[in-house]
Amino acid sequence: MSKKVTLSENALKVAESRYFMPGEDWEKCALRVATSISAAENGKQEEYRDKFFEMIYNMDFLPGGRILRNAGRPRGTLFNCFHLPIGDSIEEIGQFYKDALVLWSDGGGVGCNFTSLRPKGDAIAGKGGNSSGLVSFIEAADNIAKTIESGGARRAAALASVDVSHPEILDFIDAKTVHNKMSHFNISVSITEDFLSAVESDSEWELKFKQKSYGKIKARLIWDKIINNMVKWGEPGILNWNNLSKNNSYYYDPVRGTNPCGEAVLAPYDVCDLGSLVLPNFITGSVNTNWQKLEKTIKLGVRFLDDIIDVNKYSINEISIKAHNSRRIGVGVMGLAEYLFAKEARYGSEKALLEVERLMRFIRDTVYEALVELAVEKGAFPKFDPVSYGKASFIRKLPASLRMDIKEKGVRCVTAMAFAPTGTTSLLPEVSSGIEPLIAKAYRRQDRVGQRIYIHPKYKHLITTAGEIPEWFVDAKDLTPKDHFETQCLIQKYVDGAVSKTINMPRGTTVEQLDKLLLEYVKDVKGVTIYVDGSREVEGQVYMSMTEEEVIDWIVNNPDGILSNFSAEDIECNCQKPTEEK
Which of 94, 160, 226, 429 is least surrounded by Cβ atoms within 10 Å, i.e. has the fewest? Predict the structure, then answer.
C-alpha cells in the first residue's frame, strides 16, 4: 500500500450506502474485492490479491459497481448488465419476464431488442385474437421492474431497442412522452445507413415484419419524430446498426443490442463485465502521462475482469455458458475531463483531440497485448478461430504486429473495451464520469432525495481569489455540440465495444440544428444520446447550473459548507436517463 487513501465525506456516504459491507472502510472493501476475485488465479492467488488490492485501493482502476458491492458476498451478480432475448410467442415473452426479474433482483440491468414481437393488431395464429403490440409488452416489463428495488437499493434498469423498419416504430418512439411512463426503461431506435440515405433523399421507407410489408411512409416523418422527441424529452436514443453489428463475435454469435446505457454491445445472454481506469491518476508532474504505470494497470485490469467470469455466481445457466464461451469484458475510463485539465487542453479542441487520440490508441493496443498474453497463459476464449476472428473489422485496424500475435497465439476475450458512464463509481475518486466533460463548474442537483450543491474546487478557488478562468477550464455549457460529437467519434474508433456519452446541447436548441448535426455524426458512432438543457423540466431536471452570483452567495453563507453533497439514493446513471448506475 503506497499511500493512505481517505475518502471524502461525500465519497464515504456513497461507498457506505452502495458498496461497503457492515463495518467496512475503503481499505477493507478493496481487500474483500481483491481476495474474492484473485481466487481465480490458481497457484497465484496471494500474489494477485495484493496486486488487485493496491490497484483498487489506490483508485488507479475501479471495478464496476456490482463488483465493488457483491464480491465476497453470498449472493449477487458481479456483472452490471445483461442482454436478454425475446421471441414472438407468449412462452418466449414469459421467459423474458422471468429472466429479467431474476437479473433485476440480483442488481443487474437488462437490455433487449423487441423487434421480434409482432405489431399491434396482428392476428395471433392458433390462439386467436390480435396482438396488443410490442409497446404493450415493454410497458408490462416496466411494471414488473417497478416491483424491484434491486441489489442493495438499486432501481431496476432496462433498455428497449426496436428496428426502424418495424410497423409499430412510431408508437415506440412516442412510448415515453407521458410523464413517468416506462420510467425504468431507456428506449433506442436502431437505424441503418439505408434509412439515413432515405431521410437525406426524402424517400419513402418500407415498414415490414417477417418479410411482410405494412406499407411505406416518408423516412423523414420517422426521423423528424425522433428528433422532436429528443429535443423535448431526451429520448429515444439512436443505435447505428451498421456500426454496432460489426462485432468481433460476428462469426459465431452475432450481437443483438446493448445494455441500458449503451456501452456494451452484446449477443443474447451476454454480460457487461466492467471496470474503469481513473485517468488523472496517470498524470505525473502535473502534466505528463505516466505511460509505464498506465500500461501496467491496463494489463492488471484486463486480468482482473477476466477473473470475474470465473468467480461470478450465475443465476441463469445460459448466461454462464455465454460468459465462458466469449469471456467478453469491458475496460473503460473515467476522469477524462480532469486528464485534459492537467494537459491544459480544452475539451473538443484540436489539442484535446490529439491528446485523446494518443491516449486511446495506447489503451487499445495495450488491452489487446494483454489479451494475447493471457491467451498464452490461460488459453484463448473457447470460440476463438484465428481466420474468422482476424477478419473482424476492428481487428483489421490493429497494428500489424498485434494482428500477427493474435493469429498465432489467440486472445483471451472476444472483446475487451466498453466505455461506461461510471455514474456512481466516479464519485469515489471524485472525478468526472466516463468520457464526459465537467457537467458544470457549479450546480444544484435536484432529485427524489432533495437538493444539494456542488461547486468544483478549482472554480471556488478562482471565484474567491478573483482569478481569471483559463480557456481550457470548461464545462458542458461552454462547449458546442460539435465538441461532444468530435470527442465521441474519435474515441469510438479505438473501442471494440461502444461508448456511453451524452451530447449535451444548450437550452433553446432547435430541431433544425440537431437535425443537421445528427445526420452527419451518427454515421461515425454506435449510439447517440441527446440531452437538451431544460428538456426534462416536466419530470424534474437533475442538474441545474448556478450563476457566479449564486455561487458567491452560497460560499458567503456557507463558509464551512460541503462542496458536494450526494447521498445514496441520489446516484443514478449519467446517461441522462435515470435508470442505471455503474
Answer: 94
Q: Are 256 and 267 within 8 A, CB to CB?
A: yes
Catalytic residue, candidates 41, 168, 235, 263: 263
Contact (CB, 8 A) for 160 and 186: yes
* Percent of the chain residues past pLDDT 90, beyond the cut: 72
Share of the chain above pLDDT 70, in %: 92
Cα torsion 487, 433, 138, 167 to 10°: value is -10
> Do 81 and 108 contact (CB within 8 A), yes or no?
yes
| 413 catalytic residue (yes or no) | no
Mean pLDDT of 32-53: 97
Task: List, in sequence order, the alpha helices (H) in 62-133.
Answer: 65-70, 90-106
DSSP string, 149-197: EHHHHEE--EEEEEETTSTTHHHHHTTT-STTTTTTEEEEEEE-HHHHH
pLDDT at residue 317 in the model = 97
Per-residue model confidence (pLDDT) at position 24: 96
Give me the long-range contacts of 441-444 (CB less than 8 A, separation at least 24). Answer: 441/473, 441/475, 442/545, 442/546, 442/550, 442/551, 443/543, 443/544, 443/545, 443/546, 444/543, 444/544, 444/546
**Cell matching residue 550:** 449564486
Active-site choice (29, 81, 112, 261): 261
- Return the top range by mean pLDDT from 314-318, 514-518, 569-573: 314-318
Handedness of CA 205, 139, 574, 421 (dihedral sign): negative
Extended strands (E) in 22-80: 61-63
Interhelix angle 400-409/350-378, rounded to 10 degrees, is: 20
Supply the pLDDT for residue 219: 98
Q: 106 and 315 in contact (C-beta within 8 Å)?
A: yes
Under DSSP, the state recorded for 118 is: P
Catalytic hit among 259, 312, 504, 574: 259
Q: Grid coordinates standing for 48?
A: 494477485
Q: What is the mean pLDDT of residues 120-127?
A: 84
Answer whether residue 82 shows pLDDT above 90: yes
SS3 (DSSP) at 283: strand
Report the 10 Å Cβ neighbour count for 507: 11
Ramachandran angles phi, psi of 341, nearest 5°: -60, -45
Could you confirm whether 259 is annotated as catalytic? yes
Q: Which of 65-69, 146-150, 268-272, 468-472 has the lowest mean pLDDT?
A: 146-150
Q: What confidence score (pLDDT) does residue 363 get?
A: 98
φ/ψ of residue 390, rounded to 5:
-65, -20
CA torsion angle for 242, 580, 147, 187 (degrees, to 10)?
-30
